[in-house]
């Protein structure tokens, strides 16, 4: 079975619709056909200053939410990144292989550091794609299911893996990004030309999965649409309606063509109500299941402990091979 690895940051009280459609939904499918490793990347979350109690809560909420969204700890290896110290160890090795110039070209770093200014940008934000490369290669992953915004980071991972292999001998599997076109990028409801993102200036265009139904209904009903009346998919001229069509289609399973036919002659109001219903119906059971899992923290931690042990078994092997290839002297046992 081919191996899959992906991670998600516990940097919000809930995942948003973009995280689910761009990434987690693929994770659920891939666990059926692949040897899948999924982690809550809490070390990456340290690139944003967070209260310890908040980080702790968000990490557990993230893990519970992943299970509620369909990850089955019996079918995949689900763990918390900081439980596997090999991530940091391989991260350092890759930092010593990555060029300053190539790390500087990461557009996510450029965008985020520009927003907060150089003095408030930590070095960890700069090196985060390299730690991410370590997250992936530690498990010799073949595929990395992510949203479109992560494509450049996967390219960096491939470059680092190829460089290591050609300098020190075949050590790493070179992974490929697994990005589904249909939901590669879900956009903000208030600014449908920008990706839905938890760090958007306003939360009004972000659908948080764990929010109460009435909040999300209100957000969808106030989504920015376009002039005109037709409900047709046209990303260039009708980005708002196109985004809502993508969301409806992804969650309901109806094709965009079917939806266009179904809503021919109807108004934006009717269409938004239908999108709101699809979204709230889809996520109501997820919210409930997340709450149930969080209510028994000991059981949740036990599930994660099993996952970390499985992850460490693989990670330790890759790290030992890497150190040996580099000429680092192993300790005498
Ligand atoms: N809008 C999106 N459409 C499709 N996929 C998306 N992803 C994020 N936003 C969208 C995918 O979600 C996964 C988790 O990524 P993460 O843990 O790095 O979360 P994130 O990228 O930090 O989420 P945000 O909201 O995009 O955060 P900021 O604002 O900090 O950049 C990834 O696979 C990502 O592609």
Strand content: 5-15%
Uncertain residue ranges:
none
Please list the strands of the largest sheet in the order they lie side by side: 1-2-3
The number of E-state strands comes to 5
Structural class, from secondary structure content?
Answer: mainly alpha
Describe the largest sheet.
Answer: 3 strands, parallel
Count of separate DSSP helical elements = 13
Dominant shape:
globular
Order of helices and strands: EHEHHEHHHHEHEHHHHH
Radius of gyration equals 21 Å
* Hetero compounds: adenosine-5'-tetraphosphate
Overall mean pLDDT: 96
State the helicity in percent bands: 55-70%
Distance between the termini: 33 Å
Describe this structure in words.
This protein has 333 residues and is mainly α. 55% of the residues lie in helices and 7% in strands. The strands form 2 sheets. A 3-stranded parallel sheet has the order 1-2-3. A two-stranded parallel sheet has the order 4-5. The longest helix is centred in the last third of the chain and has 30 residues, at 297-326. The protein is globular, with a radius of gyration of 21 Å. It binds adenosine-5'-tetraphosphate (AQP).
């Amino acid at each position: 079975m081919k191996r899959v690895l992906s991670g998600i940051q516990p940097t919000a009280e809930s995942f948003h619709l973009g995280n689910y459609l761009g990434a987690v939904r693929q994770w659920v499918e891939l666990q059926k056909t692949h040897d899948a490793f999924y982690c809550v990347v809490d070390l990456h979350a340290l690139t944003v200053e967070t209260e310890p109690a908040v980080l702790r809560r968000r990490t557990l909420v993230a893990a519970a939410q992943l299970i509620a969204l369909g990850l089955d700890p019996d079918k995949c290896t689900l763990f918390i990144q900081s439980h596997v110290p090999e991530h940091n160890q391989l991260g350092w090795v890759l930092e010593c292989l990555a060029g300053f110039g190539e790390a500087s070209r990461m557009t996510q770093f450029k965008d985020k550091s520009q927003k907060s200014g150089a003095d408030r940008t930590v070095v960890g934000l700069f090196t985060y794609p390299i730690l991410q490369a370590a997250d992936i290669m530690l498990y010799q992953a073949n595929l990395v299911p992510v949203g479109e915004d992560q494509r450049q980071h996967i390219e960096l991972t491939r470059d680092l893996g190829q460089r290591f292999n050609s300098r020190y001998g075949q050590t790493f599997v070179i992974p490929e990004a697994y990005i589904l076109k249909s939901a590669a990028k879900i956009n903000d409801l208030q600014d449908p030309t920008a990706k839905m993102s938890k760090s958007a200036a306003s939360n009004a265009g972000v659908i948080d999965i764990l929010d109460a139904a009435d909040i999300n209904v209100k957000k969808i009903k106030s989504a920015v649409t376009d002039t005109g009346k037709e409900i047709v998919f046209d990303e260039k001229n009708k980005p708002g309606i196109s985004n809502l069509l993508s969301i409806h289609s992804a969650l309901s399973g109806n094709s965009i063509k079917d939806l266009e036919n179904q809503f021919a002659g109807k108004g934006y109001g009717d269409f938004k109500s239908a999108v709101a219903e699809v979204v709230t119906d889809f996520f109501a059971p997820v919210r409930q299941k997340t709450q149930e899992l969080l209510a028994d923290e000991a059981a949740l931690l036990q599930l994660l402990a099993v996952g970390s042990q499985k992850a460490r078994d693989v990670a330790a092997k890759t790290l030992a091979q890497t150190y040996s290839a580099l000429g680092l002297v192993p300790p005498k046992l």
